[in-house]
Write a structure and sequence with these properties.
Length: 282
Protein backbone atom coordinates (compact mmCIF):
# COMPACT_ATOMS: atom_id res chain seq x y z
CA UNK A 1 0.00 0.00 0.00
CA UNK A 2 1.33 3.44 -0.94
CA UNK A 3 1.47 6.34 1.48
CA UNK A 4 -0.60 9.43 0.72
CA UNK A 5 2.58 11.44 0.01
CA UNK A 6 3.72 8.80 -2.48
CA UNK A 7 0.33 8.91 -4.22
CA UNK A 8 0.41 12.70 -4.38
CA UNK A 9 3.84 12.54 -5.98
CA UNK A 10 2.68 9.94 -8.54
CA UNK A 11 -0.44 11.95 -9.29
CA UNK A 12 1.68 15.00 -10.09
CA UNK A 13 4.23 12.99 -12.07
CA UNK A 14 1.58 11.30 -14.21
CA UNK A 15 -0.69 14.34 -14.46
CA UNK A 16 -3.70 12.36 -13.19
CA UNK A 17 -7.05 14.06 -12.69
CA UNK A 18 -9.34 13.55 -9.70
CA UNK A 19 -11.82 11.89 -12.06
CA UNK A 20 -9.25 9.32 -13.14
CA UNK A 21 -8.30 8.47 -9.56
CA UNK A 22 -11.93 8.17 -8.50
CA UNK A 23 -12.78 5.94 -11.46
CA UNK A 24 -9.82 3.61 -10.91
CA UNK A 25 -10.10 3.34 -7.12
CA UNK A 26 -13.86 3.37 -6.54
CA UNK A 27 -13.49 6.25 -4.05
CA UNK A 28 -15.98 9.08 -4.64
CA UNK A 29 -14.63 12.09 -6.52
CA UNK A 30 -15.63 14.41 -3.65
CA UNK A 31 -13.49 12.33 -1.24
CA UNK A 32 -10.59 12.26 -3.73
CA UNK A 33 -10.73 16.05 -4.02
CA UNK A 34 -10.73 16.50 -0.24
CA UNK A 35 -7.87 14.06 0.32
CA UNK A 36 -5.56 15.25 -2.47
CA UNK A 37 -6.48 18.91 -2.12
CA UNK A 38 -5.61 19.13 1.58
CA UNK A 39 -2.22 19.38 3.26
CA UNK A 40 -3.44 17.73 6.47
CA UNK A 41 -5.79 15.01 5.17
CA UNK A 42 -5.84 11.85 7.27
CA UNK A 43 -7.87 9.23 5.38
CA UNK A 44 -8.66 5.81 6.83
CA UNK A 45 -6.43 2.82 6.01
CA UNK A 46 -9.24 1.22 4.03
CA UNK A 47 -9.54 4.36 1.89
CA UNK A 48 -5.77 4.48 1.30
CA UNK A 49 -5.85 0.85 0.16
CA UNK A 50 -8.55 1.67 -2.39
CA UNK A 51 -6.72 4.78 -3.59
CA UNK A 52 -3.50 2.80 -4.06
CA UNK A 53 -5.24 0.77 -6.77
CA UNK A 54 -5.30 3.85 -9.00
CA UNK A 55 -1.50 4.08 -8.96
CA UNK A 56 -0.63 0.60 -10.21
CA UNK A 57 1.54 1.21 -13.33
CA UNK A 58 -0.76 -0.79 -15.61
CA UNK A 59 -3.75 1.10 -14.29
CA UNK A 60 -2.12 4.47 -14.96
CA UNK A 61 -1.39 3.40 -18.54
CA UNK A 62 -4.96 2.17 -18.95
CA UNK A 63 -6.36 5.46 -17.67
CA UNK A 64 -4.18 7.56 -19.92
CA UNK A 65 -5.07 5.41 -22.92
CA UNK A 66 -8.82 5.83 -22.34
CA UNK A 67 -11.35 8.57 -22.93
CA UNK A 68 -10.10 11.57 -20.89
CA UNK A 69 -7.29 12.09 -23.40
CA UNK A 70 -7.82 15.85 -23.24
CA UNK A 71 -5.80 15.75 -20.01
CA UNK A 72 -2.59 14.56 -21.68
CA UNK A 73 -3.04 15.29 -25.40
CA UNK A 74 -0.29 17.10 -27.29
CA UNK A 75 1.96 19.45 -25.33
CA UNK A 76 -0.65 21.12 -23.13
CA UNK A 77 -1.95 20.34 -19.67
CA UNK A 78 -5.42 20.75 -18.26
CA UNK A 79 -5.92 24.05 -16.46
CA UNK A 80 -8.84 24.70 -14.14
CA UNK A 81 -11.16 27.59 -14.94
CA UNK A 82 -10.30 29.24 -11.63
CA UNK A 83 -6.60 29.46 -12.60
CA UNK A 84 -5.59 27.31 -9.63
CA UNK A 85 -2.04 25.99 -9.34
CA UNK A 86 -1.88 23.77 -12.44
CA UNK A 87 1.11 24.03 -14.74
CA UNK A 88 0.29 26.23 -17.76
CA UNK A 89 1.76 24.95 -21.03
CA UNK A 90 0.62 26.10 -24.44
CA UNK A 91 0.87 24.18 -27.66
CA UNK A 92 -2.59 22.91 -28.61
CA UNK A 93 -3.44 23.52 -32.26
CA UNK A 94 -6.88 23.55 -33.85
CA UNK A 95 -6.18 20.06 -35.20
CA UNK A 96 -5.42 18.90 -31.64
CA UNK A 97 -8.73 20.37 -30.48
CA UNK A 98 -10.69 18.57 -33.19
CA UNK A 99 -8.94 15.28 -32.34
CA UNK A 100 -9.66 15.38 -28.58
CA UNK A 101 -11.65 12.49 -27.14
CA UNK A 102 -13.62 14.09 -24.32
CA UNK A 103 -15.72 12.17 -21.79
CA UNK A 104 -19.45 12.49 -22.38
CA UNK A 105 -20.72 15.83 -21.10
CA UNK A 106 -17.21 17.31 -20.70
CA UNK A 107 -16.56 20.70 -22.32
CA UNK A 108 -13.31 22.61 -22.68
CA UNK A 109 -12.07 25.85 -24.20
CA UNK A 110 -8.61 26.41 -25.65
CA UNK A 111 -7.06 29.88 -25.34
CA UNK A 112 -3.64 30.52 -26.83
CA UNK A 113 -3.07 26.78 -26.89
CA UNK A 114 -3.95 26.17 -23.21
CA UNK A 115 -6.92 23.98 -22.27
CA UNK A 116 -9.46 25.31 -19.78
CA UNK A 117 -11.89 22.85 -18.21
CA UNK A 118 -15.50 24.08 -18.23
CA UNK A 119 -17.57 23.13 -15.21
CA UNK A 120 -21.27 22.45 -15.69
CA UNK A 121 -23.19 25.74 -15.39
CA UNK A 122 -25.35 26.38 -12.33
CA UNK A 123 -29.15 26.51 -12.55
CA UNK A 124 -29.03 30.31 -12.10
CA UNK A 125 -26.50 30.56 -14.92
CA UNK A 126 -28.76 28.47 -17.14
CA UNK A 127 -31.85 30.52 -16.23
CA UNK A 128 -30.09 33.79 -17.11
CA UNK A 129 -28.86 32.37 -20.41
CA UNK A 130 -32.31 31.05 -21.32
CA UNK A 131 -34.07 34.31 -20.47
CA UNK A 132 -31.63 36.54 -22.35
CA UNK A 133 -31.29 34.33 -25.43
CA UNK A 134 -35.07 34.00 -25.74
CA UNK A 135 -35.50 37.78 -25.37
CA UNK A 136 -32.81 38.51 -27.98
CA UNK A 137 -34.24 35.99 -30.44
CA UNK A 138 -37.70 37.51 -30.15
CA UNK A 139 -36.44 41.08 -30.52
CA UNK A 140 -34.35 40.21 -33.57
CA UNK A 141 -37.28 38.51 -35.31
CA UNK A 142 -39.65 41.32 -34.35
CA UNK A 143 -37.34 43.76 -36.16
CA UNK A 144 -36.89 41.36 -39.08
CA UNK A 145 -33.13 41.32 -38.63
CA UNK A 146 -31.30 38.48 -40.35
CA UNK A 147 -29.61 37.42 -37.15
CA UNK A 148 -29.67 34.37 -34.89
CA UNK A 149 -28.84 33.96 -31.21
CA UNK A 150 -26.63 31.01 -30.26
CA UNK A 151 -25.91 29.67 -26.78
CA UNK A 152 -23.14 27.42 -25.42
CA UNK A 153 -21.96 24.92 -26.36
CA UNK A 154 -21.17 26.61 -29.68
CA UNK A 155 -17.54 26.65 -30.84
CA UNK A 156 -16.08 30.01 -31.85
CA UNK A 157 -12.58 29.97 -33.28
CA UNK A 158 -10.63 33.19 -32.66
CA UNK A 159 -7.20 32.25 -34.07
CA UNK A 160 -6.86 31.15 -37.68
CA UNK A 161 -3.09 30.95 -38.18
CA UNK A 162 -0.95 27.84 -37.73
CA UNK A 163 0.22 27.09 -34.20
CA UNK A 164 -1.50 27.44 -30.81
CA UNK A 165 -5.21 28.01 -31.23
CA UNK A 166 -8.11 29.69 -29.44
CA UNK A 167 -11.54 28.05 -29.48
CA UNK A 168 -14.09 29.38 -26.99
CA UNK A 169 -17.75 28.70 -26.18
CA UNK A 170 -19.43 32.01 -25.31
CA UNK A 171 -22.58 31.76 -23.21
CA UNK A 172 -24.52 33.85 -25.75
CA UNK A 173 -23.58 35.31 -29.14
CA UNK A 174 -25.35 36.83 -32.14
CA UNK A 175 -24.55 35.94 -35.74
CA UNK A 176 -26.02 37.97 -38.59
CA UNK A 177 -26.19 37.37 -42.32
CA UNK A 178 -23.82 40.27 -43.02
CA UNK A 179 -21.21 38.59 -40.80
CA UNK A 180 -20.90 35.81 -43.38
CA UNK A 181 -18.27 36.44 -46.04
CA UNK A 182 -17.12 34.00 -48.70
CA UNK A 183 -14.12 33.75 -51.02
CA UNK A 184 -14.24 33.37 -54.80
CA UNK A 185 -14.89 29.64 -54.45
CA UNK A 186 -17.83 30.15 -52.12
CA UNK A 187 -15.98 29.01 -48.99
CA UNK A 188 -16.93 30.85 -45.78
CA UNK A 189 -14.13 33.09 -44.54
CA UNK A 190 -13.04 33.16 -40.88
CA UNK A 191 -15.79 34.66 -38.77
CA UNK A 192 -15.77 36.32 -35.34
CA UNK A 193 -18.99 37.40 -33.57
CA UNK A 194 -19.54 41.13 -33.08
CA UNK A 195 -21.63 40.68 -29.91
CA UNK A 196 -20.82 38.26 -27.07
CA UNK A 197 -22.23 37.75 -23.56
CA UNK A 198 -20.51 35.78 -20.80
CA UNK A 199 -22.33 35.00 -17.53
CA UNK A 200 -19.79 34.98 -14.72
CA UNK A 201 -19.52 31.96 -12.44
CA UNK A 202 -16.95 31.11 -9.72
CA UNK A 203 -15.11 28.59 -11.92
CA UNK A 204 -14.77 30.89 -14.95
CA UNK A 205 -14.76 34.36 -13.39
CA UNK A 206 -11.03 35.12 -13.72
CA UNK A 207 -10.86 33.70 -17.23
CA UNK A 208 -13.90 35.65 -18.47
CA UNK A 209 -12.82 38.92 -16.84
CA UNK A 210 -9.21 38.96 -17.95
CA UNK A 211 -8.06 36.31 -20.43
CA UNK A 212 -11.18 36.20 -22.61
CA UNK A 213 -11.63 39.98 -22.51
CA UNK A 214 -8.17 40.35 -24.03
CA UNK A 215 -8.79 37.65 -26.64
CA UNK A 216 -12.17 39.06 -27.68
CA UNK A 217 -10.64 42.50 -28.11
CA UNK A 218 -7.67 41.20 -30.12
CA UNK A 219 -9.87 39.01 -32.32
CA UNK A 220 -12.26 41.71 -33.53
CA UNK A 221 -15.29 41.29 -31.28
CA UNK A 222 -17.02 44.70 -31.14
CA UNK A 223 -19.17 44.40 -28.02
CA UNK A 224 -18.63 42.17 -24.97
CA UNK A 225 -20.91 42.00 -21.93
CA UNK A 226 -20.09 40.26 -18.64
CA UNK A 227 -23.14 39.57 -16.47
CA UNK A 228 -22.34 39.23 -12.77
CA UNK A 229 -25.37 37.92 -10.89
CA UNK A 230 -23.57 38.00 -7.54
CA UNK A 231 -22.67 41.68 -7.81
CA UNK A 232 -25.92 42.49 -9.68
CA UNK A 233 -24.10 44.34 -12.41
CA UNK A 234 -23.23 44.21 -16.10
CA UNK A 235 -19.82 45.22 -17.44
CA UNK A 236 -20.15 46.37 -21.05
CA UNK A 237 -17.14 46.72 -23.35
CA UNK A 238 -17.27 48.40 -26.74
CA UNK A 239 -13.84 47.68 -28.17
CA UNK A 240 -14.37 49.81 -31.27
CA UNK A 241 -15.08 52.86 -29.10
CA UNK A 242 -12.52 51.74 -26.48
CA UNK A 243 -15.20 52.24 -23.83
CA UNK A 244 -16.25 50.35 -20.71
CA UNK A 245 -19.49 50.94 -18.77
CA UNK A 246 -20.94 49.31 -15.66
CA UNK A 247 -24.71 49.00 -15.13
CA UNK A 248 -26.82 47.73 -12.25
CA UNK A 249 -29.66 45.24 -12.50
CA UNK A 250 -32.14 48.14 -12.44
CA UNK A 251 -31.12 49.49 -15.87
CA UNK A 252 -32.08 49.04 -19.50
CA UNK A 253 -28.94 48.55 -21.54
CA UNK A 254 -28.76 49.23 -25.28
CA UNK A 255 -26.86 46.92 -27.60
CA UNK A 256 -24.42 49.09 -29.51
CA UNK A 257 -24.10 46.93 -32.64
CA UNK A 258 -27.85 47.55 -33.17
CA UNK A 259 -27.44 51.28 -32.42
CA UNK A 260 -29.23 50.88 -29.09
CA UNK A 261 -32.49 49.92 -30.82
CA UNK A 262 -32.57 46.68 -28.80
CA UNK A 263 -32.35 47.19 -25.06
CA UNK A 264 -32.01 44.48 -22.42
CA UNK A 265 -34.05 45.29 -19.31
CA UNK A 266 -32.00 43.95 -16.38
CA UNK A 267 -34.84 44.62 -13.92
CA UNK A 268 -37.01 42.32 -16.00
CA UNK A 269 -34.30 39.67 -15.74
CA UNK A 270 -34.10 40.11 -11.96
CA UNK A 271 -37.89 39.89 -11.66
CA UNK A 272 -37.78 36.65 -13.64
CA UNK A 273 -35.09 35.20 -11.35
CA UNK A 274 -37.06 36.22 -8.27
CA UNK A 275 -40.33 34.79 -9.59
CA UNK A 276 -38.81 31.38 -10.27
CA UNK A 277 -36.31 31.34 -7.38
CA UNK A 278 -38.00 28.33 -5.75
CA UNK A 279 -37.35 26.25 -8.88
CA UNK A 280 -33.95 27.69 -9.80
CA UNK A 281 -32.47 27.27 -6.34
CA UNK A 282 -33.99 23.89 -5.49
Amino acid sequence: MLSLDEMKSLRKKNNMSYEEIARASGVSISSVQKIFGSDDANPRISTLKKLSLAFIPDKIYELHDSKPRYNIFGKGKILSGSLDSMNMQSGYTYEDYLAMELPEGKRVEVIDGVIYDLAAPSSTHQAISMHLSTFLSNELRKRKKRCLTFVAPFDVRLDFEDGPTTVVQPDILVKCSDDIKTDEDGNELPWVPRFVIEILSPSTRSKDMFIKTKKYKESGVVEYWMIDDKAKQVVKYNFDKESIEIFGFDKKIGIDIFDGDIKIDMKELQDFLDEYADIIES
